[in-house]
Design brief:
Helix content is 18%, strand content 28%. It is built from 13 helices and 33 strands. The longest helix is centred in the first third of the chain and has 16 residues.
């Protein structure tokens, strides 16, 4: 289809002379596909349909012609020192009246500021139009998904990055979008028919209220419901308001791809109606996300949406076969077996996995052929370098790469102590639980290795032989559990309530550890008494010291079994949460 160029108050051959714009009647111009360089376009017609290869301005300088097939933007060169951008005039006929009004205002503004460069004004108009859902999305689904491979996967912000920011909130979405991660958005509907970004049909888990979302009006939600994220993310966080889906689409549609899922059945039709009525160009940058059992796939495909359909552990191949023609991308959970994930990958369509918060999970999944990583901590899992070398736990804000044994669960998350213990952290889950400290990992060792130093205490003393400490030297950030079989080996500093300090070595797949050297007798800790430690890992030795006393060291033990750069905090053998250890003042130093 040829588009018409001309017919607006800006479409004249003009030359800037000093501070004035002068019309140039009869000027002959050539048409190009770029503002500089590019290729001359000669497949043109005049307003009556006759072929032409160049454009001649009318007696009053007016310019009008039809461009090449499907061209909507061209650049005219009248030999006056610059090319002028022209946008097809008939584009306005296929957009809504609201958008047309904005374009007209932008065009008028461009004319008024033509002396400051017409091309800049038109670009601004284009940006304004994109914000009003013209089919000109800045970032499309295809631009993100098509290049994704297991070697270079696409990363998505699961719930906006819900392991490091309050899930499904504007602050989470903005942070993820600023880092160019596509957004995974769940929605439910309230009693007034408004859609809100919320994973659960109830507000119990993530907010300060209880009950079904559809039992509250829009006004009640907007004024009275806030997140309760501090137990998961730290008391340093300010609680957030819930955010309506409209606001999120208005801000992010076309800027980053969005994976959108109505969670409860009563939210499906309102979501479809909203997209149909107000966001007709959403299919360019929205993926319709749904469970394999959904009935919404025909609607999504009839509108041109890409679809991401996630499975559960019991989904059969026959069920997948029945839906295959309406599926663009399959979804697998990190809990699926390697065999099952490989089977889904073998079907030939891109596979995305959820919810990922460890680098070791990324390595496993991409090794199986997964190309999309739905990450609750996307910045951490998409990088491979440490972010800091000293703790700031006094800020009481969870760091990226903070990896408990179970995600999205405050009972397993790193807990920041309140006054008078601000700066101390602990793990509220027992027994055998730990939290990885990925933000410091992998440790950047110097030529002589590295040192970990920290303070530790028991606010309430456990039984004399029970212990807490840290683990270190692991090759990856997979979970560590004392007295459990772990995926990779490493070392464990043990500090018992009776004062015994020792260094254990753990082999992958083996439940029990072995002591390196011998247990060191130190002064028994006191309730709330601070102990200080140093761990030195050199190319040839490992040494553990308790530095709040003299001579308390294992000595430099000649062991090079593990030199991985991942470490974390461990509750060890503690069985009573009241007697769990606390840590502060972590520092990583190159030797």
């Amino acid at each position: 289809m040829r588009h018409f160029f001309g017919g607006t108050t800006s479409d004249y051959a003009m030359e800037q002379v000093g501070n004035q714009l002068l019309l140039r009647p009869g000027a002959t111009g050539t048409v190009w596909d770029a503002v500089t360089g590019g290729t001359q376009l000669t497949d043109l017609t005049d307003t009556s349909g006759l072929p032409i290869t160049s454009v001649v301005a009318a007696a009053d300088g007016f310019v009008a012609f039809y461009g090449p097939e499907d061209a909507t933007t061209v650049y005219l060169d009248f030999g006056l020192g610059r090319r002028y951008a022209m946008v097809a005039s008939d584009i306005a006929e296929i957009v809504s009246a609201r958008v047309a009004g904005v374009q007209a205002a932008a065009a008028d503004d461009a004319t008024a500021k033509a002396a400051d460069a017409q091309a800049t004004a038109i670009a601004t108009a284009g940006q304004n139009a994109a914000a009003l859902y013209l089919p000109n999305a800045i970032t499309t689904v295809d631009s993100i998904i098509n290049p994704a491979t297991p070697v270079a996967p696409a990363y998505f912000a699961h719930r906006g990055g819900g392991m490091v920011r309050p899930e499904h909130t504007l602050v989470a979405y903005r942070a993820a979008a600023a880092m160019r991660y596509p957004l995974e958005i769940s929605v439910n509907v309230d009693a007034s028919g408004e859609l809100w970004c919320l994973h659960d049909p109830t507000v119990d888990r993530t907010t300060n209220r209880t009950g079904n979302l559809n039992g509250y009006t829009t006004e009640e939600i907007g004024q009275q419901i806030q997140t309760n994220s501090r137990s998961l993310l730290g008391a340093g966080w300010a609680e957030q308001r819930l955010v309506p889906l409209r606001q999120v689409l208005d801000e992010f549609l076309g800027r980053v791809p969005i994976l959108l899922e109505p969670k409860a059945n009563d939210a499906v039709v309102p979501c479809q109606q909203l997209l149909d009525a107000s966001y007709p160009h959403a299919p360019r940058s929205v993926i319709w996300k749904c469970h394999i059992g959904t009935l919404s796939l025909p609607w999504a495909k009839s509108r041109g949406y890409r679809t991401w359909v996630y499975l559960d552990s019991g989904t059969s191949d026959s069920t997948m076969d029945a839906k295959d023609s309406m599926v663009d991308y399959w979804g697998v959970n990190t809990t699926f077996t390697d065999t099952r994930i490989s089977q889904v990958v073998a079907r030939g369509k891109p596979v995305f996995a959820w919810a990922v918060y460890r680098r070791s999970q990324v390595a496993r999944l991409t090794g199986l052929g997964v190309v999309g990583i739905m990450a609750s901590d996307p910045r951490y899992v998409s990088t491979s370098a440490p972010m800091r070398t000293a703790s700031r736990w006094d800020l009481q804000i969870k760091e990226p790469g903070c990896t408990p044994t179970i995600d999205y669960d405050p009972d397993y998350a790193l807990q920041f102590a309140p006054t008078p213990d601000v700066g101390w952290v602990s793990i509220p889950a027992v027994p055998f639980q730990s939290v990885g400290l990925g933000t410091y990992c992998p440790v950047a060792a110097g030529a002589g290795g590295y040192r970990l130093s920290f303070d530790m205490k028991f606010k309430v003393l456990p039984s004399s032989t029970l212990h807490g400490g840290i683990y270190f030297g692991k090759q990856s950030d997979d979970a560590y559990r004392f007295s459990q079989s772990n995926a990779t080996g490493g070392y464990h500093l043990v500090m018992r309530a009776n004062g015994q300090m020792q260094l254990n070595k753990h082999t992958a797949g083996v439940t029990s550890g072995t002591t390196l050297g011998s247990a060191i007798a130190t002064t028994a800790p006191t309730a709330d008494g601070v102990m200080s430690f140093q761990v030195d890992v050199t190319p040839t030795t490992v040494e553990v010291r308790r530095t709040d006393g003299a001579g308390w060291t294992t000595g430099a033990l000649a062991d090079t079994t593990y030199r991985g750069g991942y470490f974390g905090l461990s509750n060890g053998s503690i069985t009573d949460v009241a007697t769990r250890p606390y840590w502060r003042n972590l520092v990583v130093t190159q030797l």
